[in-house]
Write a structure and sequence with these properties.
The complex is a heterodimer of chains A (447) and B (685). Chain A is an alpha+beta fold and 447 residues long. Chain A has eleven helices and 15 strands. In chain A, a hairpin with a 4-residue loop joins strand 14 and strand 15. In chain B, strands 2-3 form a two-stranded antiparallel sheet. In chain B, a hairpin with a 5-residue loop joins strand 2 and strand 3. In chain B, helix 8 runs antiparallel to helix 12 and helix 9 runs antiparallel to helix 11. Chain B is globular, with a radius of gyration of 26 Å. The chains are: A alpha+beta (447), B mainly alpha (685).
């Protein structure tokens, strides 16, 4: 086998280089979704998993190195090339060795027992609740809020519900929960330094909620409230996530972010979410007239948008202060398979839309991202693949946002109304979010 | 041995066979011939094994093309080669094809060809049922893939979780094809499992005790038992799904209060044993290859056998590790986490025993050996990453990411498929009578193993970087581009390796014919088990006469013994020991058209269920016709029953010689000549 050894040495050197590159690459931090590296992670749960996994990986490397070493050693020392092969050269015919067998049955069993016991302690700590009430002021009333967010998946976006009242969400299916105090889409806002309990469920198919830098994932199963799952963030910031259970056509485009805020900022966020759309007095009067059943002619862009929204959007999307009288869960359930569409009352207080794949605010200029919002209104399918037809001839419900064939004027008016919803998030949050938007320049040219 | 019920077609006179030949008045019981038609009616386990192999390689090309499409789509961020709709179909069909139509039938190809040979039998216990399982598998696979031409393949993932698999969420017929297609191939697996279990348990010749069987036979026996118990579970689930989708039942309808986890439990109670169904045959293959090319017996035979059995049993107690994040509750998660960890123990024992077999051997790195050693190291990686996600907390980060994709490709490609390629190179001369070219074979191996690692190695990193499975696109700023591009390059290296394999077949066959190269002989590798004790390619009747088995590695012990210093000495050449296949007076089962007729009915019924129930009538009629014809089919020479022969050994004797009637004394005397080594060996066994 002497002829082989240089090539083996070469192969070993190559292997070392590859291994080093792999290690370096896996430490590189341009991945918003990474599960590796204490510094990349932002929550105690994710860090606990990472540090456990790291030493198990070292054991795995060692075992593999052992197997590889024995294989290569055997190759070098016991290998015979074709020319040197002798018919009557036989090694000792060993059939086995019981002591060895028992030893190498017991050794991995003991090693795994150790790993198993430690697994149980980590598993137990990840599944135990240890949250403290958070003092928040809701509608002028100070309450001790058990930090709990109801996470509801549907094709292909996440809803986050906040119930400040006395609701035992553990016991309820999502369909029977009272209307939440706050409902956001695609972005969950939490206070830092608090363990937040997540009650995860789904309205249609199975999804999986995963914010890698905070904690592992948990499936959203329709008809079931999952066993509680929790997340906690140490620092203010934006933490990215992706639906990880295959959920149909636009599974890849079902993303979400967790926005962690200082307690004071979180309180401010709650305050802002409790209000309706900040309309000027004339537009508010216009809404009142429409609600009362009159049909006054719209006088400006906002009023035209209000009219369009009430005519074409309000049966699915809730927008408080504009069209809450037209919205009901039953009405949405008649229109959509999932029975839910994002609450748009505070659309522009969020930084992403369309399943968390487009920016509401431009991360560079901090301006409202009119292009993408307009493109979404004009042709949602071009941003996120949707089924453009109803389920079937017998079942006229839609899955996802249909193309409403809005006129350019209607689109422009609605974009302005959506910008108005607010309040605009901080520049820090806008620049931290900044999702990659493929081909948005091209679209800008197309305008 | 050999409870073979029907005699070989020997051209009985017309007057004798006229009515018996035509049980239903039209289909004549076919005669053995050399024409291509013979393949349609054959019940020969070797031909069926080869057909399994050819069909599986055909599906392998389809599944491979799907894999390349996936890799091209993901090569760069925001890939646009495939629409999300098509992408979902492609990855679903890639998984379904590779598992059900490639790895399982390739394992079945080897099992069919080799099990009877390795235990010294003439055929399987139920030869027509064997043909039935092949044809049912083939038509099931074609039916499943015909969805591509009829509106698109299944799009729910191979795991096909409910309620995403309901008509509401997947209105096309893709998932109907999935449910019915897998139902049909499931029938094939069940029939084959019953057949092969019966064969191994009942058709071993004198002296072939269970613990003298080769490890390959043992592992396949375990696999057949796994199939026997696992397939009914998925069949039930698929029936429920079919009724939900086609007839409005509510097994998985969450709107009517169904629990979606029902499907998950049913699927994985099948699906986890399925993993061992895929991998154990390859463990068996390399347990034959490694001792042969190490010139040593397998280290720790009984530990190898019992660890395989242990895997078979423990495989039933780990299914919920696929559901750690489904919300099954912390206690269940903890229990399945521990049970999953401990299944690594018997697997580890196997790896250590292979290494111990290599240790101190005289290793010949033929292509077969390279692939086998490749399995040992690549499967180790897959096993170790498996341990990392048996740790439930870590699995909450890993599951449904590319880390899992990496893991199971290291198991199924690095373990099962590389093992199967080892088997190709090893048994090719036995099956086809010519050797595959070793130089090209090495190119095949190195391209495949390098390509494999370049493709699937980076997926570990991608998964831990947070790349989810089953996504058709990802953003630039996720940091996924580099490794995805590398993986795509790797996938084309694999494709080159596979192309070279096909080239090698064509090249080796041509060279062998052109150069008039000699037959490789019964035993080109100096191997150990009974299949090498007959001519290459295996004669139709396998063995001229029954083999009386005295030890494990019977063939080796007939060639070699020990001298007084316990050194190995040759006592006979392979040619002296092996049978030359010249006995032409052996009763063999007659061919039959009814297996293919019966099988053809199944996809017709399935199309009928999807498109128009009227179509079920001709399909069902064909099935019933096949069954009735099968039952009333007579041997084409009714006189040639076992007890009708008078004297054997006479070439003119129209009655075949049943192998069991060979002069036993003569064989025993011959066996005794083999010498003391065999007896020592028998004691060890």
């Amino acid at each position: 086998m002497t002829t082989m050894s240089p090539s083996i040495r070469k192969a070993a050197r190559l292997l070392a280089v590859v291994a080093a590159t792999l290690l370096l690459a896996s430490c590189a931090n341009d991945a918003e979704l990474t599960t590796l590296g204490q510094d990349n992670l932002a929550g105690p749960e994710a860090r606990q998993i990472d540090s456990f996994l790291t030493w198990v990986l070292w054991i795995a490397y060692a075992v593999f190195a052992g197997v590889l070493f024995v294989t290569i050693y055997a190759w070098k020392n016991f290998g015979i090339s074709g020319d040197d092969y002798e018919e009557d050269d036989w090694p000792e015919q060993i059939h086995g060795n019981d002591t060895l067998e028992y030893a190498w049955t017991a050794a991995p069993a003991l090693l795994l027992l150790g790993i198993g016991l430690y697994t149980l302690t980590v598993h137990n700590s990840l599944n135990s609740e240890d949250s403290n009430p958070v003092n928040v002021t809701v509608a002028g009333e100070s309450i001790a809020w058990e930090p709990q967010v109801v996470v509801v998946g549907q094709q292909w976006w996440w809803e986050y519900q906040y119930h400040f009242g006395d609701v035992d969400v553990d016991q309820e299916r999502v369909q029977t929960l009272p209307t939440p105090d706050i409902s956001t889409a695609t972005q969950m806002v939490i206070p830092i330094g608090q363990e937040i309990e997540l009650e995860i469920t789904s309205r249609d198919v199975i999804h999986s909620h995963w914010i890698p830098s905070l904690n592992g994932k948990r499936d959203a199963v329709p008809g079931r409230q999952s066993a509680p799952w929790k997340i906690e963030a140490d620092e203010p910031g934006v933490y990215f996530g992706q639906c990880t259970e295959f959920c149909g056509l636009s599974h890849s485009r079902m993303r979400m972010q967790v926005i962690a805020l200082e307690p004071a900022d979180f309180q401010e966020w709650i305050n802002s979410q409790m209000e309706g759309v900040p309309l000027d007095a004339e537009s508010a009067a216009y809404v009142d007239a429409l609600v009362a059943g009159d049909t006054p002619a719209p006088e400006n862009s906002t009023q035209r948008a209000i009219s369009t929204f009430r005519g074409k959007c309000a049966s699915c999307h809730l927008m408080e202060g504009v069209a809450e009288d037209l919205w009901s869960e039953e009405a949405v359930a008649r229109q959509l398979v999932s029975g839910a569409a994002p609450n748009l009352t505070h659309f522009s207080s969020r930084t992403t839309f369309g399943g968390g794949i487009r920016n509401v605010w431009d991360p560079e200029t901090k301006e409202f991202n009119k292009n993408d919002v307009a493109q979404w209104l004009r042709d949602p399918d071009s941003i996120k693949a949707n089924y453009t037809d109803p389920v079937s001839d017998d079942d006229m419900r839609m899955r996802g946002m249909p193309n409403l064939e809005l006129s350019t004027q209607e689109v422009d008016d609605l974009v302005a109304l959506l910008e108005l919803t607010g309040p605009k998030p901080s520049d820090f949050i806008i620049s931290e979010t900044g999702v990659e938007t493929p081909g948005s320049e091209e679209n800008a040219q197309g305008e | 041995m050999a409870i073979i019920e029907r005699p070989l077609a020997i051209g009985a006179g017309d007057e004798a066979g006229a009515t018996a030949d035509r049980p239903l008045g039209d289909l004549t019981r076919p005669k053995q011939s050399d024409s291509w038609k013979d393949w349609l009616s054959t019940v020969d386990h070797k031909k069926i094994g080869i057909m399994y192999g050819v069909a599986a390689m055909f599906f392998f090309v389809i599944g491979g093309a799907e894999a390349l499409l996936i890799r091209l789509q993901l090569a760069t961020p925001n890939g646009t080669l495939l629409s999300p709709e098509v992408y979902n179909q492609v990855f679903t069909m890639h998984g379904v094809t590779m598992i059900f139509l490639v790895i399982m039938p390739l394992a079945a190809a080897f099992a069919n060809y080799l099990l009877p040979l390795q235990i010294g039998a003439r055929d399987v216990a139920f030869p027509r049922m064997n043909a039935l399982s092949f044809w049912v598998f083939l038509f099931g696979g074609l039916f499943l893939n015909s969805a591509w031409l009829l509106g698109g393949g299944a799009d729910g993932g191979w795991f096909n979780y409910s309620p995403n698999s309901s008509v509401t969420f997947s209105p096309s017929h893709g998932i109907d094809f999935y449910a019915l297609g897998l139902q049909i191939t499931g029938i094939a697996s069940l029939v084959s499992a019953i057949n092969l279990i019966t064969t191994v348990l009942n058709m071993r010749p004198k002296g072939m005790s269970m613990f003298r069987m080769p490890i390959f036979t043992w592992m396949n026996l375990v696999v057949q038992f796994l199939l026997l118990f696992a397939v009914p579970v998925i069949s039930v689930a698929l029936f429920e799904l079919t009724f939900d989708r086609l007839f409005g039942a509510n097994f998985f309808n969450t709107e009517k209060g169904a629990d979606p986890l029902l499907w998950q439990h049913l699927f994985w109670i099948f699906g986890h044993p399925e993993v061992y169904i895929l991998i154990l045959p390859s463990f068996g293959i390399i347990s034959e290859v490694i001792p042969t090319f190490s010139r040593k017996p397998i280290f720790g035979y009984s530990f190898m056998v019992f660890s395989g059995i242990a895997i078979g049993f423990m495989g039933w107690g780990v299914w919920a590790h696929h559901m750690f994040v489904s919300g099954i509750g912390p206690i269940s998660v903890a229990a399945f986490s521990l049970s999953t960890m401990f299944i690594a123990v018997p697997t580890g024992v196997k790896i250590l025993n292979w290494l111990a077999t290599i240790w101190g051997g005289r290793l010949r790195f033929t292509t077969a050996m390279l692939f086998a050693v490749g399995v040992v190291s690549m499967f180790t990686i897959g096993g170790l990453s498996g341990v990392t996600h048996s740790i439930a907390p870590a699995d909450t980060q890993q599951t449904d990411t590319y880390y899992i994709v990496a893991h199971f490709h290291y198991v199924i490609f690095g373990g099962a498929l590389l093992g199967i390629f080892s088997g190709f190179y090893f048994w090719w001369p036995k099956m086809f009578g010519y050797m595959l070219n070793e130089r090209i074979g090495k190119w095949n191996f190195w391209l495949q193993i390098v390509g494999f690692n370049v493709t699937f190695g980076p997926m570990h990193i991608l998964g831990l970087q947070g790349m989810s499975r089953r996504i058709d696109t990802y953003d630039e700023d996720f940091g996924f581009e580099f490794w995805n591009l590398v993986a795509t390059v790797g996938s084309f290296i694999i494709a080159a390796g596979i192309a070279i394999f096909f080239y090698n077949i064509a090249y080796s066959r041509k060279e062998w014919k052109k150069a008039g190269m000699p037959n490789p002989g019964p035993d080109p590798w100096d191997a150990r088990s009974l299949e090498w004790m007959t001519a290459s390619p295996t004669p139709e009747h396998n063995f001229d006469e029954d083999i009386i088995v005295e030890s494990q590695d019977e063939f080796w012990h007939r060639k070699y013994g020990y001298d007084e210093n316990n050194n190995v000495v040759r006592i006979a050449t392979a040619e002296e020991v092996a049978q030359d296949g010249s006995n032409h007076n052996v009763h063999l089962p007659s061919p039959s058209y009814f297996p293919i007729v019966l099988s053809l009915g199944l996809p017709i019924v399935a199309y009928g269920l999807i498109y128009s129930l009227w179509l079920c009538i001709p399909g069902a009629a064909l099935i019933i016709y096949g069954m009735v014809g099968w039952i009333f089919e007579h041997p084409d020479d009714p006189n040639a029953a076992h007890d009708h022969h008078d004297d054997h050994g006479d070439d003119d004797d129209p009655d075949a010689v049943e192998a069991g009637d060979v002069d036993v004394d003569e064989v025993v005397a011959e066996a005794e000549l083999v010498g003391a080594g065999a007896e020592t060996e028998a004691d060890n066994g």
